[in-house]
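Example record used in the benchmark description.
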Amino acid sequence: QFRMIIGTDENEEITTKFPMVPTECAAKTGDVLTFDFHREIHYIQKNEGISNKDFRIVLKVHHCVYPKWATPFGLLLGWLSTRYNMAFRSLFLYTINPNSLWERFSAFNVVFWTVVVEQLEAKLGYSNIGYLLTLGLMGYFIDYKIFLIGTSFVHYLRYINTYYHREGCAYGNFKRDALIYKTLALTQLAFWYTHSVTKGFTDIQNHGIGIVDAAMVVGGYALSAYTTAQLGVDGTYFGIELGFVKATKNYVQKFPYGVIPHPMILSQCVAMCGFYKHEAFRAAWPYLVPAHVCLYLTHMVQEHFDIYAAKYSQKNIKAA
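Model output (structure tokens):
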């Protein structure tokens, strides 16, 4: 379900903002903004010090796009979206200047639930919520490994796909998803490592973790955290490659950069190999760490040789 905002005047006072992209536009004559009405966070903001000469007038056009095989669902979604939009618009107008106790209560709920819905999308994403709930049910009723596999490697695929395609990336969504799935992956990795080496948390004293194992894990993740601090979150998550950070690709030259190649990736691989050194963990989860490392190294090769779609499209154009 999409909404189009079509500018019909010389508006400069009101800007429509899309924080998860991020981008913004003060729609005026000739401007057309199209976005996912139900999932794309958007709001309007007054530009201080600028006033329109007349009322701001925009045309809002809603349309639903669906494949032919999903016609019943598409028609239902279109009908529900129309009813929702009409009902919520009426509620908004009803509570815009609340006077009675009921109107103030209604106004509070409009604002409160708008914030709740916005924060759920910004921090988790409804697609992720649906995906995780589905995997959670499958993991509970069928096999936990479905949840483990379905959540442990998503962030690598997001890295590889985003680095390769680049164009049209909703940067806020990408960072949100990468952090969610990386957190899930490392949390499960740490949990099952601890579970394995302590025999199901029944023998904490005799864990058998060696000094080298601990040094690899602690040192690897400490170095990774240090490199992240040097690059910043946006620099870490392809902000330069995607055009959101105005800097050259190798703008950080302090240690470990310039000394260790791809220090963030290699340090995390070392840390995961530190987990893998423990015999009990290898026996319980023989393929978990190798899968992590293989996917991370695949992305490292992609970064090292700077493999992305537009690069090869440009080469083909020049060759032609």
